[in-house]
Specification:
With 285 residues, the chain is an alpha/beta fold. The protein is 38% helix and 13% strand. The longest helix has 20 residues, at 194-213.
Length: 285
């Protein structure tokens, strides 16, 4: 089990549920589900705020280069993002209590822990879940991966994406904006504002380069695996999602939601129901 410096700042884990309670004044409740969420390229932990409900504990992983970590340099790799997130999770009071309960009784924690990642976040989530199980002794009830071709599988080619990452291409910014428009999920107010784009594109490019360089699967987890995809998503096909099978020795289930690359926010209740139903599932592989 890894060690960590006492009192080290934990800037990469954002408790979105606690933030919501501060705004609303709602009392804390014992959650029925805890969801640890890894955002897509260019996004911040707040991407997952739509999941927050009174009975669901939602935590977002904050990558460097945005929000409270705006001045920090980009991460060098997906593994580095997962490593710092695993360290932050392992130091959280709820994780310490859950680990102690599991170690002493062998039983699963009272609140199932789901690790969820979307797009680039799927790669981070897979690495994070593996580290939590194999290095931190924290049991994950479900690994849920969305809208991302697994490392090593044939990815869907996109000319605008390739041009947008080329520092020698004078059309790089415009190419990335065209790609983002096709993907959806980025407000037009951002895409049409040069100043906002100047703030967003560096983090997006850094994330995309890290994501595209990630070429390995982590050690498999014993938790079941849920594969999520938008039915009209042109960035990943069913075969690309199925290539994630080796990251779990547990049951594998698939869900398709109406929509393109960012369908989850529009189907919050269905997503939460799927996460809860599949957590600890012994269903088909």
């Amino acid at each position: 089990m890894s060690t960590r410096p006492t009192g080290s700042p934990v800037r990469c884990l954002v408790d979105l549920s606690a933030q919501d309670r501060l705004r609303s004044g709602a009392p804390a409740r014992t959650p029925r589900l805890r969801v640890l969420c890894c955002p897509p390229s260019g996004a911040a932990a707040g991407y997952w705020r739509f999941l927050v409900r009174e009975d669901v504990h939602v935590l977002g992983v904050q990558y460097p280069g945005r929000e409270n970590r705006f001045r920090e340099p980009a991460a060098a790799s997906v593994a580095a993002l997962a490593a710092e997130a695993a360290e932050a999770v392992a130091g959280a009071p709820w994780a310490t209590a859950a680990r102690s309960t599991t170690a002493s009784t062998g039983a699963a924690p009272d609140v199932p822990l789901v690790v969820l990642g979307h797009s680039m976040g799927a790669s981070v989530a897979a690495e994070l879940a593996s580290r939590l199980e194999h290095r931190e002794g924290i049991r994950v009830a479900l690994l849920a991966l969305s809208a991302k071709t697994a490392p090593g599988a044939v990815d869907v080619e996109d000319e605008d994406l390739r041009a947008g990452l080329d520092p020698q291409d004078p059309d790089a910014d415009a190419a990335l904006v065209r790609w983002l428009r096709r993907l959806g999920g980025t407000p037009e107010a951002v895409l049409s504002d040069p100043e906002l784009l100047a703030l967003q594109l560096p983090a997006l490019r850094a994330d995309l380069r890290v994501s595209m360089a990630h070429d390995r699967l982590p050690d498999p987890v014993s938790a079941p695996l849920l594969l999520l995809r938008g039915a009209e998503d042109g960035t990943v096909d069913a075969a690309g999602m199925d290539a994630w099978f080796p990251v779990s020795t547990g049951a594998v289930q698939r869900r398709e939601y109406p929509g393109g690359h960012h369908p989850l926010a529009g189907h919050r209740d269905r997503l939460l129901a799927d996460l809860e139903a599949c957590a600890g599932s012994g269903g088909p592989r």
